[in-house]
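Something for you to look into today, if you have time. What I am after is a single protein written out in full by you. I want to see for myself how the chain folds. Could you add the entry underneath, on a fresh line?
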Amino acid sequence: MKELRYPVITISRQYAAYGRTVARGLSQKLGIPFYDRDVVRKTAAESGFSEDDINREGENLSRAGKFMNDLLNNAASYPSSHDRIFEAQKAVVLELAKSPCIIVGRCADHILTEAGIPAYKVFLYADEAHRISRAAELEENRGLDPRKAAAKKEQLREVYYKTYTGVEMGNISNYNICIDTGAAGVEQCISILSEIVIG
């Protein structure tokens, strides 16, 4: 394993901005694991929630869902399923960060900052045309209008992130670096990040 200046890297991303692809390539280049859907599996194993529950609620929260979430939390003495899944994912993120790795999404950047755990925080974004083109390639959007699918999933992700961090996703002050994957391209993003992290 290479000597890393930043052994833990978090990647926040707009929907269909190649976050998982960049993470996978960076993982191969650095020789450290990356976690994306693995967080779902680990959360399911440790929390009692099913992977379907976590996929449905783990990084998605609509405005109506947030309203109901807040209402239930104010009216009851127990947290909502969204809150319990977030807490379970938070525990997984903190455990993963004990070793060099790349963590995609799951509010990992904010979770590690709050816990005082050093991490190199990346935000990936792209213009609408690039993200719609990428959304059209993804299996999860088969049979859907990629423009509408991308817009909806981006909104769910933004509401979720704001709910559990209190800050806006994509606010440049929250990250060490922000890269336009549409302009730079995936390989260049991987190259830039690896040079910074290896130092």
